Inverse folding.
């Protein structure tokens, strides 16, 4: 296995860190936990980068690992519950900005919808790319995306009525 | 702004990373990866309190049984003068030490004279199909006797949140009780916020409805007179009520929950504001607190609401002249819809068993007690008092005296405005004596038509139990909308019958059927399957093994299939001869959820698995707290079968025997979760 040099790794880090962090945060809503995920994902990348055939594969692989790691953290959050509480405050306050409110709505989506929204809107992946990342058919991705949009739309309409 | 734009812009809500991790990661990839520092949580069951209560129960049990019968008066009155008040307190029977019913300490707790597993019944049948909250406003009602009247528990949940009183959480090297709100999301869990309960409170419970979650902390007078140093007794002896409005839950930046309202309700050496004295309807919070009066002191009867303090005057206190109990009781109603307006009703006496409908509270008090050595059929009488809280004021509607005793709330049920009550004779010791006459009964009671008071309008006084047999469980299964009106009673031990009792014209109880089965159920849970009434019994088999049984409780009363023996079935499922298991639900203190599906039902049950590890030196038992999921389908050849057993690596594993009571399986929005030491997804 050929090890990445420090410089090579820093390049990759620059390229992907925001993507990984933001996906993780969308699942965890906690900076410390998201940074943990960033750390875990890059450590895995350093051990596995040589297996990845292309840049696209690399990106998709990193997204998949990030989602899995984030879910693992959620799953084991009982083990670290004090930390996970730190950043969950603002969604429950009344004076949310429009962006925060919308982020909260996305955060509260079921995972299967949240994932496609994040990849499509936050990471600007195409339907085809998402289907490759998630290993679903394009039709399934479209369906989920549509359903996710509808949920958000309904929520938004409810808010407007209030 | 278009929806798409709004979604894209919401990305800006994600805060920036705090740290540049590149060097750290690269170094870690060369060295041993750094482990994230994690907090650990440990808790142990408060066994010492249980032992303390048990010990006191024994002490009190024998004391109470020495009391002589008092004269009976059917009239309650209030104190007109100071002298009258003090005279009443002085009349406290000295021989008893303290005069109150055992039943009031803990509902169904096993005290002296009740050595076997307690008498019980389970949840409202109607709640079964509604124990799966599917929208965010609904709250699980799995543990309530009356639909829509929530009862205290250590956890509540709706479609996406769990509200959990978590005992013995290790925070800064100290064990604390913490109220936590968890987000439940497709089998994953994350904490939303927490509230650390102040040190000094011995018990915490919560109730919830669609709009509110109410956390109540309380302590008992036991602790006060148990303590050598009484300096902070006043601090300890109160009830703290924390009200959280679901739509306005606030969490600080430290993750701390902020209650919307806090009410302090000091008792004077609060004795037993047990969790079963707490209810929450969609309109009001209802608390029945009890205070112990010591050394003849006149209690300071005050409660605080926010910064306001109100004193209860003596002329507002009711009492029965013949009552041998001198406990001070407050029934408090906090109106949730009218800016938390408080109404109270107060009386001296006791309220060991409380039943609450949507409009009325019924409390019982044993009045006569002839002692345990008597040959009398009944060794006690019970007074039942009705308090109506449907209007602006709480009004006493009258009382009635019945032979025998009402052992827990499940012995009572209100149907179409009438109270139906099961009374047992006092041979609750479990000492079987087939020579002893048995006189269990069912009464139907209603308000008198033309005068104040209650009267018996229907009764069944013969045929329940063979000589010497004791009542083991009682279960009303009713639904006013459909007319369902069934009572099941299990007695033990000659032929162990399960009775099905119906009510002619809704008034006159009669035995419709009885089924003789080995062993008995101490827990009865109605299930609806293909529109048929099925009864799930949890109990002990003829060989004293923990068992589950299914009964057809519809057109006929028959057993479905054979008993499911937990120990045997778990061992068979895990394929390891060294393993066994038993039911670790806590009788009727812990309610169960049965989740209905078209193809059957799933039933999550906490169990305790043990493994025998034999070496040359010793035989060692390793215990695991675990969860078992069962599939129930009365149409199958095997009507109860194991769907999955979650082993100890998922939950607490203890080398030493540690009886933790906080284990539960819940089902929220299509996913199972185990709640105990931790909150975990089980799917």
């Amino acid at each position: 296995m050929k090890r990445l040099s420090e410089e090579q790794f820093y390049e990759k880090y620059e390229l992907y860190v925001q993507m990984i962090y933001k996906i993780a945060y969308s699942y965890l809503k906690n900076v410390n936990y998201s940074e943990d995920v960033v750390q875990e994902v890059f450590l895995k990348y350093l051990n596995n980068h040589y297996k990845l055939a292309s840049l696209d594969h690399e990106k998709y692989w990193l997204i998949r690992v990030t989602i899995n790691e984030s879910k693992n953290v959620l799953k084991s959050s009982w083990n670290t519950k004090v930390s996970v509480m730190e950043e969950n405050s603002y969604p429950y306050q009344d004076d949310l900005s429009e962006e925060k409110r919308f982020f909260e709505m996305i955060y509260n989506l079921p995972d299967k919808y949240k994932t496609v929204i994040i990849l499509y809107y936050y990471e600007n992946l195409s339907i085809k790319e998402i289907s490759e990342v998630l290993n679903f058919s394009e039709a399934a991705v479209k369906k989920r995306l549509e359903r996710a949009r509808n949920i958000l739309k309904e929520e938004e309409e409810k808010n407007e009525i209030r | 702004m278009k929806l798409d734009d709004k979604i894209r812009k919401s990305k800006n809500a994600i805060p920036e990373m705090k740290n540049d991790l590149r060097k750290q990661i690269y170094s870690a990839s060369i060295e041993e990866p750094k482990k994230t520092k994690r907090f650990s949580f440990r808790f142990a069951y408060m066994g010492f309190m249980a032992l303390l209560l048990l010990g006191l129960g024994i002490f009190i049990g024998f004391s109470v049984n020495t009391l002589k019968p008092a004269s009976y008066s059917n009239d309650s009155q209030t104190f007109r003068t100071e002298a009258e008040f003090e005279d009443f307190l002085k009349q406290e029977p000295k021989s008893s030490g303290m005069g109150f019913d055992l039943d009031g300490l803990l509902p169904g707790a096993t005290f002296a004279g009740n050595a076997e597993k307690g008498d019980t019944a389970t949840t409202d049948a109607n709640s079964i199909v509604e124990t799966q909250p599917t929208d965010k406003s609904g709250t699980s009602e799995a543990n309530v006797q009356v639909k829509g009247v929530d009862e205290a528990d250590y956890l509540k949940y709706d479609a996406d949140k769990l509200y959990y009183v978590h005992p013995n959480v290790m925070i800064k090297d100290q064990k604390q009780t913490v109220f936590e709100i968890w987000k439940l999301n497709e089998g994953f869990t994350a904490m939303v916020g927490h509230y650390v309960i102040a040190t000094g409170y011995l018990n915490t419970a919560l109730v919830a409805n669609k709009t509110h979650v109410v956390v109540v902390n309380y302590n008992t007078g036991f602790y006060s007179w148990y303590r050598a140093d009484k300096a902070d007794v006043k601090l300890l002896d109160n009830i703290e009520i924390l009200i959280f409005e679901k739509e306005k839950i606030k969490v600080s930046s430290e993750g701390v929950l902020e209650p919307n309202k806090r009410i302090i309700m000091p008792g004077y050496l609060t004795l037993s504001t047990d969790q079963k004295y707490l209810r929450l309807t969609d309109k009001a919070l209802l608390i029945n607190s009890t205070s112990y009066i010591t050394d003849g002191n006149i209690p300071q009867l005050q409660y605080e609401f926010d910064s306001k303090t109100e004193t209860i005057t003596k002329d507002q206190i009711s009492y029965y002249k013949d009552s041998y109990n001198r406990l001070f009781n407050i029934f408090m109603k906090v109106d949730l819809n009218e800016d938390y307006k408080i109404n109270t009703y107060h009386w001296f006496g006791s309220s060991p068993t409380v039943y609450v409908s949507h409009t009325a509270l019924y409390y019982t008090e044993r009045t006569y007690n002839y002692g345990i050595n008597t040959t009398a059929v009944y060794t006690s009488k019970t007074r039942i008092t009705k308090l109506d809280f449907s209007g602006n004021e709480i009004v006493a509607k009258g009382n009635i005296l019945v032979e025998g005793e009402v052992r827990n709330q499940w012995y009572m049920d209100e149907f179409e405005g009438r109270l139906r009550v099961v009374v047992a004779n006092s041979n609750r010791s479990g000492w079987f004596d087939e020579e002893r006459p048995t006189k269990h009964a069912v009464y139907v009671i209603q308000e008198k038509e033309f005068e104040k008071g209650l009267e018996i309008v229907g009764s069944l006084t013969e045929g329940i139990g063979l000589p010497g047999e004791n009542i083991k469980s009682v279960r009303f299964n009713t639904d006013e909308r459909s007319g369902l009106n069934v009572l099941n009673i299990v007695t033990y031990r000659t032929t162990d019958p399960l009775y099905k009792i119906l009510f002619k014209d809704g008034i006159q109880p009669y035995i419709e059927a009885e089924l003789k089965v080995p062993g008995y159920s101490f827990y009865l849970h109605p299930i609806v399957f293909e529109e048929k009434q099925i009864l799930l019994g949890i109990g002990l088999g003829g060989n004293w093994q923990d068992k589950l049984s299914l009964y057809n409780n519809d057109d006929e009363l028959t057993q479905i299939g054979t008993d499911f023996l937990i120990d045997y079935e778990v061992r068979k499922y895990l394929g390891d001869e060294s393993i066994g298991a038993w039911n670790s639900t806590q009788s009727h203190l812990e309610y169960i959820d049965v989740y209905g599906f078209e193809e059957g039902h799933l039933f999550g049950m906490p169990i305790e698995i043990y493994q025998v590890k034999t070496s040359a030196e010793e035989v060692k038992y390793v215990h695991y707290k675990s969860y078992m999921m069962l599939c129930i389908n009365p149409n199958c050849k095997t009507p109860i079968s194991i769907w999955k057993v979650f082993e100890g690596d998922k939950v607490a594993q203890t080398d030493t025997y540690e009886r933790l009571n906080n284990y539960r399986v819940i089902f929220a929005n299509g996913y199972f979760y185990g709640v105990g030491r931790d909150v975990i997804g089980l799917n």
Remarks:
- Residues 359-516 of chain B form one domain.
- Residues 8 and 14 of chain B are 12 Å apart (CA to CA).
- Chain B has seven helices and 44 strands.
- The first helix of chain B runs from residue 3 to 9.
